[in-house]
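>> Question from a student workshop board

For tomorrow's exercise we were told to take the sequence and the ligand below, predict the bound structure, and bring the output to class. My setup keeps failing. Could a helper post the expected result so I can at least see what it should look like? The ligand is zinc ion.
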Amino acid sequence: MKIERVDHIGVAVNSIDAALKFFRDTLGLKLEGSETVAEQKVTTAFLPVGDTEVELLQSTAPDGPIAGFIEKKGEGVQHIAFVVDNIEEALKEMEAKGIRLIDKVPRMGAGGKKIAFIHPKDTYGVLVELCQKI
Ligand code: ZN
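>> Workshop helper replied:
Here is what the output should look like for this input. Compare the format with yours to find the bug.
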């Protein structure tokens, strides 16, 4: 498994519009795009920073995973995503090392990437996303 870089940092927010006042208007980051992933009940907005990005996440439904996260922990950093060279191999390697996976097989995420989440119980509380551009 080869981790190439941090792809993005996911930040759970109640309102992307409200959060843009800080991330875009105050920090001066550029809003590159926005996408709703219906299956995950989330709308995402991407703001590049060098070769990584801030990913704002807003729930589209009260029972979505982002709504659940905010209910438990409040707004804030929700996950860190690493680019790997081969996501299927990385998942197999982690599973062989006893790391619990949320996604045993990759699924399609925002931005045309294959993604998979690793269980935060095995990653010191950090929800880790692996991703690979296809
Ligand atoms: Zn993500």
